Amino acid sequence: MRITFIGAGNMASALIGGLLANGHQASAIRAIDPSEEQRRRIAAQFGVACHSDFADSGDGDVVVLAVKPQAIAQVVRPLAGRVDDRLVISVAAGIRATDLSRWLGGHRRIVRCMPNTPALIGMGVTGLAALPGLSDADRQSARAILEAVGSVVWVDEESLLDAVTSVSGSGPAYVFYFMEQLELAGRAVGLSPEQSRALTLATFRGAAELAIRSDEPLSVLRERVTSKGGTTAAALAVLGEGPIAEAIGRGVAAACRRSKELGDEFGSDPASDSGA
Asked: Are 63 and 4 in contact (CB under 8 A)?
């Protein structure tokens, strides 16, 4: 595949690095960015061709939109009629494929993706949704690109990407917050900052890997650590007394609602929609 990235920020860097690590040729990748500093960085780091304008990108098979959602409308509208019949993959958070299609003059070969920040180290997970009618070949192309930075999960309806955003897109922040509190609690019971941090990080890494390798439900894994009358049971009894479980549910629901709101906000285009 010949891939053109529009936007050369962190996510584009992660995807380009992942593709190269998986055997993709640098000569088949181009990056477009208005920032000369970004172009120089990408060219030096990965050896790919960089341009300031899409017109200089040449022919290609796939266009990856890696632009901040606040700016994507002004970036995408000028591409109407210029992406030809290429597959367009968007990693812009909150920007709906239907809005992209409208800005691109009715273009339909579009996949919208919601990666998360662990993609920066090749351990991300990405939710994907396609406009109706997308071919299996295009789905495979999108999967191959996003799997370069981790695993992928397809959803049948684009609206479910709001739920994906609330679970995995925002999810690393939830995990970091719990880790932060556990580390602080370790200090409070006498551990040094270094000891508490090391124990916290290793515990989360090991528990996550154990869950990944197991076919058991998470509830079963939790129960296996919890001996009746033991230390874990004492801790969970206290945690269960507070609204933690409910708070997690409310937090994910709030993130899902906000994702929908941002889609409405960033996808609005009053001037275009009014015919002006």
From this structure: yes
Domains and CATH numbers, the chain: 3-156 (3.40.50.720), 171-242 (1.10.3730.10)
d(CA 141, CA 154): 13
pLDDT per residue rounded down to tens, the chain (276 residues): 899 999 999 999 999 999 999 999 999 999 999 999 999 999 999 999 999 988 776 678 999 999 988 888 999 999 998 888 899 999 988 899 999 999 999 999 999 999 999 999 999 999 999 999 999 999 999 999 999 999 999 999 999 999 999 999 999 999 999 999 999 999 999 999 999 999 999 999 999 999 999 999 999 999 999 999 999 999 988 887 667 888 889 999 999 999 999 888 888 764 444 333
Packing angle of the helix pair 36-46, 10-21 (nearest 10 deg): 20
Q: pTM of the predicted model, to two decimals?
A: 0.87
